[in-house]
Amino acid sequence: MATIFPVGTGVGRAEIPALCAALAALLHGREPGVVLCEMAGPGRPGIATVEALARLRLTAQRYGWQLRVRGMTTELHRLIGLLGLTAVLPADGDIHP
């Protein structure tokens, strides 16, 4: 069973440490599995959104978890691809226009 972790699409760099701390607190002491970063909310994804997802992936890995991105838009998918992180930040399910 996957664990859902909400992430806003318009994440700013200042929010990244708090997101990583929240994910660490959620995963600490739990059996490893898959965490789904649920992309939702207002705003357009930017480089900071991709940075947040990459750092969340590192946080998940520290606890033995895998990370997938759910609710990924075409725009976010393209950004991830341009940065060469498609294999690192896989989409869970369909890419939404």
Automatic annotation (TrEMBL):
InterPro entries in alphabetical order: MlaB-like_STAS (IPR058548), STAS_dom_sf (IPR036513)
Domain MlaB-like STAS: 13-85
Pfam families documented for this protein: STAS_2
Highest rank taxon of the organism: Bacteria
Protein name: MlaB-like STAS domain-containing protein
Natural source organism: Actinoplanes missouriensis (strain ATCC 14538 / DSM 43046 / CBS 188.64 / JCM 3121 / NBRC 102363 / NCIMB 12654 / NRRL B-3342 / UNCC 431)
